[in-house]
Amino acid sequence: QADIVVQAQATAQASDDETSLDNQDLFPMWSGDSVEYALDYKVQAFNLENELVLYKVVQAHTSQPNWNPPNVEALFTRVAREGEILVWEQPSGAQDAYNIGDRVWFPDVDTTVYESLIDANTFSPDAYPAGWQIIP
Is the pTM of this model over 0.90? Predict the structure, then answer.
């Protein structure tokens, strides 16, 4: 049975984001116990709203207890469905910066939706309004 679980997780890791979200329960829970995470590896973790969501590694690393995915955008990004609008988060660098056409809720969900007008956008709509447009 352990071999079947390992094979299912390996197959899940190779899937695209949409398929991964449809099969989220196949992904392992994030662990801060010195686990080596490769680029693009996907794990489940609780976000800041205590919802179990899927994250993708954007920088290979060995985990540490305080590097929980929602708290370290330099290491993880939340996996989203095509067209899903997430709440704006401060990018930590080029790997998670917003690009032309990316849409976000800002400052929180159910407020205003903004669309990035520039690539490599690391500024919030408040910090650099010229980089964003409001979507009605």
Answer: no
Using CA atoms of 35, 41, 43, 48 in order, give the dihedral in degrees to the nearest 10.
Answer: 100
Which residues are CB-contacts of 48 (< 8 A; sequence separation ≥ 6)? Answer: 70
What does each of the 136 residues of the chain score in pLDDT, given as a tens digit?
A: 788 888 988 999 999 999 999 999 999 999 999 999 999 999 999 998 899 999 999 999 999 999 999 999 889 999 999 989 999 999 888 878 999 999 999 999 889 999 999 999 999 999 999 999 999 9
For 42-92, the DSSP string reads EEEEE-TTS-EEEEEESS-EE--TT--GGG-TTTEEE---TTPPEEP----
Would you state the structure tokens that stand for residue 87, as one six-digit string? 């709440």
Q: How many CB atoms lie within 10 A of CB 3?
A: 7
